[in-house]
Amino acid sequence: MTEHTHGFRRTELRRSFISEFDHTREERLDRYLEIQHAGIVAHHHFSPASSECIELYRDGHFLSAVMVSQAVTEGSWRFVLERNNESTQGRPLNVLIELLVERGVLTQTCAGAFSRIWGSFRNDVHHMKPEVAQVPFRELAKQNLFDLGLIEKELFAWTVTEPVHRGGKITPTQPKYWDVQGGGTASVFLRNP
């Protein structure tokens, strides 16, 4: 490819990208606003992937949003078990969920969100079974992201002692999920509001 051809192709692609963005801007904004995600979460290995889920949904990549939301949920679940010194010990998922609710580790709302995401055609999607042709990915992605938001809001809930501009600080409701360091600091993952 000559430099001239490359430059022409680049110009045409730029026009195409701008046109596509302009054409889909309002839809993307609407989808982004549909998802009530947590704006601040603790920074862990799955935090960037969780944010990418939101971007995938916003940009209309629904199948990918479903897959990543399922993966983030599985990582979050292992994280919850680890932070609560719990293991599966061969117990079925529903039994373990009920146990964590009984112990007050999870609310029923959070447990329901975990269960719904696991029930969202996980094996069909991850193994690309023929059944995926019948999956309503847009609706499923929206539900999964709403549920993932519920999970993150519970695990990474926080309060503000007083307005930040007056020296207030964010205080995690469940510090065991935040890796709070000496001096009360913790690494956070910020998202667009």
What's the arrangement of secondary structure elements?
Blueprint: H1 3-34, E1 40-42, H2 47-58, H3 62-83, H4 93-102, H5 108-118, H6 122-126, H7 137-155, E2 158-160, E3 170-172, E4 188-190
Antiparallel strand pairs: 1-4, 2-3
Helix pairs in contact: 1-2, 2-3, 2-7, 3-7, 5-7
Explain this structure.
- The chain has one domain.
- A two-stranded antiparallel ribbon has the order 1-4.
- Helix 1 crosses helix 2 and helix 3 runs parallel beside helix 7.
- It is mainly alpha-helical.
- The model has no long low-confidence stretch (mean pLDDT 90).
- The chain is globular, with a radius of gyration of 20 Å.
- The termini are far apart.
- The chain is built from 7 helices and 4 strands; from the N terminus they run αβααααααβββ.
